[in-house]
Amino acid sequence: MRALVLTVSDRSARGERADATGPAVAERLRGMGHDVAVEVVEDDAIAIAEVMSAAVGDHDLVVLAGGTGLGPRDVTPQAVQTILDYEIPGFGELMRAEGRRSTPLAALSRSLAGVAGRTLVLVVPGSPRGAVESLDAVAPLLPHALDTLAGGDHEAPAGADRRMPAARPDRETKGERRR
């Protein structure tokens, strides 16, 4: 699988700071068997959308790191949403939940995931730790998501249990009334 890691950072794009996040995410993806390229782009919605548009179709997975905060230059989610065909809300939820294990500030992240064409797009925080934690949160789902986008069937991954959970005894089930 071909992947692109795109670090969104004004300072890294200007050469004022080395990009630590892109290489950290790329190393993790290589460990998962992906062929990975790493690029840096400034925090600019038009620049982000241009790189994204060029990457979609050439890559199975694009991971954008950075620009997910609340600052005035944090525009990654807005730029990516102009390219996405649809979002995958559960991925963003998983990434924030995992991040909250390290810091309550993770709830402020605007991390997200979606699909553009047949490319899976992940938007993760800009810190190396936050980016890798976010990637790890969704890593178990990536093979199935990428296979499905490539035209595979909807079979659950090996070991996944699709049965409905048993009703909890402390909860009312449909048709029952508490007395």
Q: Give the assembly state of these chains.
A: single chain
Give the number of domains. 1
CATH architectural arrangement:
3-Layer(aba) Sandwich
Give the overall shape.
Answer: globular
Strand order of the main beta sheet, please?
A: 2-1-3-6-5-4
What's the CATH topology label?
A: Molybdenum Cofactor Biosythetic Enzyme, Chain A
Termini distance? Answer: 56 Å
CATH level 4 superfamily: MoaB/Mog-like domain
**Count of individual beta strands:** 6
Question: How does the major sheet shape up?
Answer: 6 strands, mixed
Structure class: alpha/beta
Rg (CA only): 18 Å
Low-confidence stretches: 161-179
CATH class: Alpha Beta
Query: Average pLDDT across residues?
Result: 88
Account of the protein in words:
By secondary structure, the chain is of the alpha/beta class. It has a single domain, classed as MoaB/Mog-like domain (Molybdenum Cofactor Biosythetic Enzyme, Chain A, 3-Layer(aba) Sandwich). The chain contains 7 helices and 6 strands; from the N terminus they run βααβαβαβαββαα. Strands 2-1-3-6-5-4 form a 6-stranded mixed sheet, sandwiched between helices. Helix 2 (21-31) packs parallel to helix 6 and helix 5 crosses helix 6. The longest helix is centred in the middle third of the chain and has 12 residues, at 89-100. Mean pLDDT is 88; it is low at 161-179.
